[in-house]
Amino acid sequence: MACCPVTIVITGGKKLPELEALELAYNAIQSGAACVDIGRNVFQSEKSSAMIQAVGAVVHKGMKSKEAFQMFNDL
């Protein structure tokens, strides 16, 4: 990491609507994060399996949040 020599983890917060949680993940990755740590917004989603797949697409495939939200809805 060129800017920060230590790992930064953002934690906590309330359950967000799925699109907002995906936007948070997308913005973190676009800002240089290597990964995201999302718990509540996956486990409290009515479709947790679909949500983790959508988050994975944002992080590992560079999918935009709205595309990932569509994927979430389709699963």
Brief synopsis:
With 75 residues, this protein is mainly alpha-helical. It has helices spanning 18-30, 40-43, 48-61, 65-74. The chain has four helices and no strands.
Separation of termini? Answer: 35 Å
Helix content: 40-55%
Largest sheet: none
Give the rounded overall mean pLDDT.
91
> Which stretches are poorly predicted, pLDDT < 50 over at least 5 residues?
none
DSSP strand tally = 0
- The 3D shape can be described as globular
SSE string, helix = H, strand = E? HHHH
Structural class: mainly alpha
Query: What's the number of helices?
Result: 4
Question: What is the CA-atom radius of gyration, in angstroms?
Answer: 12 Å
Which percent range describes the beta-strand content?
under 5%
Notes on the structure:
This protein has 75 residues and is mainly alpha-helical. The protein has a domain at 39-75. Helices cover 55% and strands 0% of the residues. The chain contains four helices and no strands. The protein has helices spanning 18-30, 40-43, 48-61, 65-74. The longest helix has 14 residues, at 48-61. The radius of gyration is 12 Å and the shape is globular. The mean pLDDT is 91.
